[in-house]
Specification:
The complex is a heterodimer of chains A (114) and B (111).
Chain A lengths: L4 E3 L2 E4 L5 E6 L6 E8 L3 E9 L2 E4 L8 E7 L2 E6 L8 E8 L8 E2 L3 E5 L1
Parallel strand pairs in A: 2-11
Antiparallel strand pairs in A: 1-3, 3-8, 4-5, 4-9, 5-6, 7-8, 9-10, 9-11
Chain B lengths: L2 E4 L4 E4 L4 E3 L1 E4 L5 E7 L5 E7 L5 E4 L2 E4 L9 E3 L8 E8 L6 E2 L3 E6 L1
Parallel strand pairs in B: 2-12
Antiparallel strand pairs in B: 1-4, 3-9, 5-6, 5-10, 7-8, 8-9, 10-11, 10-12
Classes of the chains: A mainly beta (114), B mainly beta (111).
Chain lengths: 114, 111
Amino acid sequence: DAGVIQSPRHEVTEMGQEVTLRCKPISGHNSLFWYRQTMMRGLELLIYFNNNVPIDDSGMPEDRFSAKMPNASFSTLKIQPSEPRDSAVYFCASSVGTGIDTQYFGPGTRLTVL
Amino acid sequence: GDSVTQMEGPVTLSEEAFLTINCTYTATGYPSLFWYVQYPGEGLQLLLKATKADDKGSNKGFEATYRKETTSFHLEKGSVQVSDSAVYFCALTTGFQKLVFGTGTRLLVSP
């Protein structure tokens, strides 16, 4: 059974460029989460969706960040324009439903903005 | 707001030593508590969880007991192995899907 799939695994880009990170949640899971991990700030929840609808985006750092979930099997996190301080590992996670269901994490995308 | 505090790492142990990683929390409601583990180059995996006071979560020899009176959820293992080397995250949720993580504690186990 496939887990959460993220692509690309590594992304190196230059400041000012648009970056798109992709996530495929586990089939049958209704909730999807985007996290960012840095040494300075640890793990931060950026946004989460339930049944493809954004529920809480209070963790999105600024307008340069946007996330979409057009269907139950795909989500994107876009940064435009990217800045060096966006360099981090971005994780996608999914869970079956609401409440305290276990979140299953993808392997992450390591983003480096030069 | 809700928060989780973990002991600073790294924790360095020899194989077969006893492990304790401390975790305390602050929450306005009645949280569920989790330990996640992150192996090098991988995403986080759920290690164990407890949903109410006095519950004990356990998995792969690791245990943690939900102590409401001390607002703690310390992780323990009686005999660590080199393969346990990883970063361990304590986390909580009050039921609205938002996991709040601690800063993580790196464990290094030497042969």
